[in-house]
Amino acid sequence: MSDLPYPHLMTFGDWQRKYAAWLNAVIGIGGKVLLDVGTAYGAQIKAMIDIGCYAVGCDKDPRFIEHCPWREVKKRMFVWDVTEDIPQFVINQFFYNPMEQNKFQIIHTHALLEHIPEEKIPIMLKNLKEVADPWAIHFHVVTIAESPEWQKIGDPDHVSIFPYKKWLQIFKDNGYSDIKHYFQNRLLAAEMNIKNFYAEYQWGLFILLGDRSPQIKDRRGIYGTVR
User: The domain spanning residue 66 has which CATH number?
Assistant: First the structure.
């Protein structure tokens, strides 16, 4: 087991439970279909499942899934490098309905984006929009230039440590809208009542909406955009 990547991510306990509760308080994940990208051994989706979220996880390294210690979580994990083409089985599962039902309602990443080379970020963001419902919430926790030094230098695989404003511009350039201000009161309440994750870790926290509203036909057969 010593040669496995990030063995500390196999830990499950109070931190993971509180994070799932915090996330639920901020954006309401209970009863939602959520994709956790860069899920590692699945500890976070286990906590999400325990509070009633239908969470699914993917990671590019099959060793994470092979060594997931929770049977009920392992069956909800699959291998996908989100900077590469979408696997056919994902297309089969999430693209069959022309009205775009049954896609993920929440896209979640935690400490992933800083591992993605800058030139590959656009294809990753495009792929995530493709498997998401048009009105899905995209929730990203990122180590940024303003984060504490121990976070930035603590992982040699960090290749995209950018200021908060640069990340916002990257999202905007790739067709996302910043909607975090709509959740500000819920975020403050979660920080006070559950755990002050945001203040303690000084994450870059991004709550976004992908700019790809669905089109529907009216009674005359004319397409219009749903807003």
Answer: 3.40.50.150
